[in-house]
Structures are given as C-alpha cells and as structure tokens.
Design goal:
This protein has 15 helices and 23 strands. The chain is α/β, with parallel strands linked by helices. The strands form 6 sheets. A 7-stranded mixed beta sheet has the order 15-16-17-14-13-19-20, sandwiched between helices. It has a 6-stranded mixed beta sheet with strand order 10-9-8-11-12-22, sandwiched between helices. Strands 1-5-4 form a 3-stranded mixed beta sheet, with no helix packed on it. Strand 6 and strand 7 form a beta hairpin. The chain is globular and about 85 Å long. The protein starts with 7 loop residues before the first strand and ends in an 11-residue tail after the last strand.
Length: 490
C-alpha cells in the first residue's frame, strides 16, 4: 500500500495543511530501501510565527473556552481515530523510520492508551480552598501554562507525539509541534485526524523543519510559554540556554546509557531474552535502551555466550515483514556513526563476539552487536551509541554493581535481574535513574512517570505529574470581613 507516496505533505497550521512561506519541499527516502517515500514541506521562522499566532488565538478563543468534559471527549475521539487508522499509521511509521512494524504496532497501541489515560485524568485537575484564619479565604485555580512548543525525535515520532500531545491538550494548552525533519509523517497525519474529530483550528499546529532554525526559533519565541523536548543531551543543554531569556518552562527527556544488571541467581530463562529485547528493540535507537550489561563475574562467560547466540538469531530485515525483529537504522550516515563506535571499542580493547560489521545491500542495516570484556571507562561504555550495540562488563558484588551502574553522566533507566527480592529493592534505591525495573524489561506505561536523573534531563512524561508541568497555579485571596480595609489608617 503506497500510503505515503500518493500525496505531498504540507505544514499543518490553524486547522489546515498549508505551504511553507519559503516554498521549500524536502524529499524523504525510506531508510530500509533508499527509495523515495514522500515530499514534505519544510518550515521556516515565518511559519513558526504563524503557528504560534494560531495557537495564541485558539487559546484565547474556542479551545480556551472548551470545558473539561469536552476536552475529555475530544481526546477520546482522537484515540478512536488513531485506532481506526492504525494500519495506515503503522505502515507510515515503519516506512518513515525503518523500524520493524511489529514494534510500531506496539507503540501505536500505547499511543492510543496515552490519549485515553489523559482524557480520564482531566477530572483530576483541580485547585483547592481553605480558610487561612480570621476573615480571609484562600482558593487556587489551575490554568493552562499557555502555548506549548513540543519537539519530538526521529526514533519514536508517533509515540513521542502522543506522549507530548495528550497531557498538554488535557491541561488546556495549545500546541506548536516540531517533529524531526526526517520523520514528520505520522505527526502530520495525527494533526489531520485531530481536526477531523473536532479540535478547534489552531489548537494543534505541526511545523517540521531543521532544529537549528525552526527548533531554535520556537524555543526563543516570546509567544511560547513552555518547551517540552525529547532528544539528545547536547541539544537539551542548548535549549536551556536559548530559553533563558524568556524564562521558558522546560521539560527535557534526554539521553541515556542505561545498565542492565544480572546477578548469578537470576532466572536466565527470563533474563537473557528480556535483555536481548531491551537493547535491540527499535534497533537500539532508544534513549532508555539497556546498552550496558553488567554481569556477575561467576556467571559472566556463560552469560556472554548465551546472550551472543540469542542476538545472532534475531531476524534483521524488511521493516514491513511481520517476522522482522530488527529493522533499519535511520540513515546510512547514522549507521556509519554506530560502526565508528564499534571500531573505537575494538581499538580500546573490547572483544566483538557478535555482529560488528555493516550489512551489505540497500538500506542502513546494522546487525545486533555484542562487545565483551568492556571496561566501564571505555568510550563505548560511556557514550550513547544509539544503535544495536551492547557492552558487557563483569562485576564482583552488589556494591560494585551499583558503582558501575551509576558511573556515567546519564540516569534514565536501569534493569535488575536477581532471585533475591530484597537485593532488587536495595539496589533500586541506590541506582540514580528515573525508572528501575526488577526482573522485567519494560519501561513506559501510561500513568507511570518516565524521565531521568543527571544529564538524562528533568520533568516527567506519562504520569499524572506531567499534567502539572502544563499548568500554572493561581492563588486567590478573598476577604469575608464586614469591615472595610484601611491598612494605613487613612
């Protein structure tokens, strides 16, 4: 089904598809084949200005006047529309990103649930009131922070879009969304679906374009009240600088180098396949990928052998085939970058026990790769490779496991495999990470806060806490005294 190539995609501003001010159109190719995929408008600063103006008008107009019950209904309606169009959206995403469609379908299902969760969570938005003594009464109001600029990455464009849109819309904000230039198709389609189910024009605007121009202008824009960004730590740092002049509210979900800790008493029938999934899902192009395996020394050789054999059995290939487990990387350039890390690992003394060479043929495929005998000080153990590459490092005891787990600049995710429940909970307290899994590999569910410590960012996605990041609290003081105020005794 030529779902993407049958049309040209414009920007989406004020409820309709529109041409960019510059007239610039980009050609997109499929990462897995290199074949033409779609033509997409590329926004510039003038388009961002138009989108922000539309979002401000909607906030002051129809969307700002929409009551909570109607906001909830519209979020449920958008969830229904995504579900009804799931086949189209899944293929669009798989072809645009190069990701295995089996993974995309799971992400799409979570995206539907994200909208349903926040549609229901709208009922939790409430202020409070209480007398504060004498004749004064206090109450608070929760109001939307305003126009939210949201920037989503290329690795999970559909799912990250739902992570961003659902809580912001639930809170009553309007949105200017900037998807990555390489992967804008499902975000643009989702904006069309939002308009079809009845979201007022200007509520959701989508402006794909370069981060250095469109993203930077969105962050600096005085009409944007909040920025929510998912992407690299380096870009997050730059966003903090750019947003300083206008005191932007920020949520930053950044990079990771997450540990996967396996003790000798772990159930290997669970630990090995789950550990394989936790790095090679999405071809390792995931911020919370457990890319550092820390394995108890007495188990080390056995684990490396079993893990490597399991990695070699994974099916790498056409993203649209149901049997594919590892799809393409996002581009040949990114594949070369990933391979450069592997080569550096070799030079630093790591042993390549699986994969380690780009696959021949069309596309940007790289095999599941295992680097053993890795010292935690090596570059491959410290830097985010963002590809299907795992390092495996031995440890002697629980204390060393905790030290190694924390000995990176990131703190997004960690997983612990042990047959000792007490040790799992003890170690979870010692690891500096926003999410810790004990004997389970999964990371993100609607209703469970997701975010990082240290240079993995701040703020949380997916939880009720997230609503607060899109709300302002206004305190109101009321006098109930029958006497007039005359503080100066005039």
């Amino acid at each position: 089904m030529a779902v993407a190539t049958e049309r040209e995609y414009g920007l989406f501003i004020n409820g309709e598809s529109t041409e960019p001010a510059s007239g610039e159109i980009r050609e997109l190719s499929e990462p897995a084949t290199g074949e033409p995929l779609a033509r997409v408008a590329s926004a510039g600063e003038e388009d961002v200005d138009r989108a922000v103006a539309a979002a401000q008008a909607a906030l002051a107009g129809d969307w700002g006047k929409t009551p909570p019950t109607e906001r909830s209904r519209l979020l449920h309606a958008l969830a229904d529309a995504i579900q009804a169009n799931r086949k189209e959206l899944a293929e669009l995403e798989a072809r645009n990103v190069g990701k295995a469609i089996s993974s995309v379908k799971a992400e799409l299902a979570q995206g539907v649930e994200n909208f349903r969760f926040y549609a229901s969570a709208i009922a939790s938005i409430a202020g409070r009131s209480n007398p504060i003594g004498g004749s004064l009464l206090f109450y608070s109001l929760k109001e939307p922070v305003g126009v939210a600029g949201q920037i989503v990455p290329w690795n999970y464009p559909l799912m990250m879009t739902t992570w961003k849109l659902a809580p912001a819309l639930a809170a009553g904000c309007t949105i200017v969304l900037k998807p990555d230039s390489a992967t804008p198709l499902t975000a643009l389609r989702m904006a069309e679906l939002a308009a079809e189910v009845g979201f007022p024009p200007g509520t959701l605007n989508v402006v794909p374009g370069p981060g250095t121009t469109v993203g930077a202008h969105l962050v600096r824009h005085p009409g944007v009240d909040k920025i929510a960004f998912t992407g690299s730590t380096a870009t997050g740092s730059e966003i903090m600088r750019l947003g300083a002049d206008t005191i932007k509210r920020l949520t930053l979900e950044l990079g990771g180098k997450s540990p996967n800790i396996v003790f000798a008493d772990a159930n290997l029938e669970d630990a090995i396949p789950s550990s394989v999934w936790s790095i090679y899902y999405s071809a390792g192009q995931s911020c919370e990928a457990r890319s550092r395996m820390l394995v108890e020394a007495s188990l080390y050789d056995e684990f490396v052998s079993s893990f490597s054999e399991a990695a070699k059995r994974l099916k790498v290939g056409d993203p649209l085939e149901a049997e594919t487990q590892v799809g393409s990387l996002i581009s040949p350039e990114h594949r070369d970058k990933v391979h450069g890390f592997v080569e550096q690992g070799r030079e630093e003394g790591a042993e390549v026990v699986a994969g380690g060479e780009p696959l021949e043929g069309k596309g940007a495929f790289y095999p599941p790769t295992v680097l053993a005998n890795v010292d935690n000080r090596m570059t491959v153990a410290q830097e985010e490779i963002f590809g299907p590459v795992v390092t495996i490092t031995p440890f002697e005891d629980e204390k060393e496991a905790a030290r190694l787990a924390n000995d990176v600049k990131y703190g997004l995710m960690a997983t612990i495999w042990t047959g000792d429940p007490a040790r799992g909970h003890r170690l979870a307290r010692r690891i500096k990470a926003g999410t810790v899994g004990i004997n389970m590999p999964y990371t993100a569910f609607p209703g469970i806060p997701f975010g990082g410590y240290k240079q993995s960012g701040f703020g949380r996605e997916l939880g009720l806490d997230t609503l607060e990041l899109y709300l302002e609290t206004k305190s109101v003081l009321v006098s109930t005294s029958p006497k007039p105020f005359n503080p100066f005794g005039l």
